[in-house]
Specification:
Distance between the termini: 46 Å
Number of strands: 0
Radius of gyration: 20 Å
Shape: globular
Length: about 160
């Protein structure tokens, strides 16, 4: 099996979806790229554009490292099918009843919470958009969210291992 150029794999993995396409998984790559590019406009449409980076960052990390994982599998000679990026289980079903039967109850609960949070944030943004304190709070959230999140994750990991 022919090994792929590691540097080109790295460069293509920097853009979500392009790494998949470089590896020959065009269907997965196009869907990942479209999802990544649609995150920001959808968040802006819902007036929660300040959250788009918070959503895009984990998506970028996933596609970046998944590209290298798939490249290793291909280099070992494994067959990696070019399946849909996210919607594989749901697009193969012939009718809507099978679609709803395959979605777990926990997924629906988490999805409902996510919709409630997104809707609430959009309403809050519309209500308090003109106030100075709201703009200040939004800027602090966008500036300090990730550093605080990293510190809390590190503290959690340290104390989790001591138990």
């Amino acid at each position: 099996m022919e090994r792929r150029n590691g540097f080109l794999t790295f460069l293509s993995a920097l853009i979500p979806g392009v790494g998949y396409m470089y590896l020959g998984l065009v269907k997965r790559g196009v869907q990942a790229l479209m999802l990544f590019l649609l995150i920001e406009p959808v968040c802006r449409l819902l007036s929660i554009g300040y959250l788009s980076d918070i959503i895009k960052l984990p998506f970028w990390f996933y596609t970046f490292f998944d590209t290298f994982s798939i490249a290793r599998r291909l280099d070992r000679g494994e067959y990696v099918p070019d399946v849909d990026f996210i919607f594989k289980k749901y697009t193969e079903m012939p009718n809507a009843q099978q679609f709803s039967a395959n979605i777990s109850r926990n997924f629906l609960i988490y999805f409902a919470y996510a919709l409630i949070v997104i809707g609430t944030l959009a309403i809050i943004d519309k209500l308090f958009n003109g106030y100075e304190i709201y703009s200040l709070i939004k800027s602090y959230i966008s500036t300090y969210f990730f550093p605080v999140l990293f510190v809390l994750a590190g503290v959690y990991l340290l104390f989790k291992n001591k138990r």
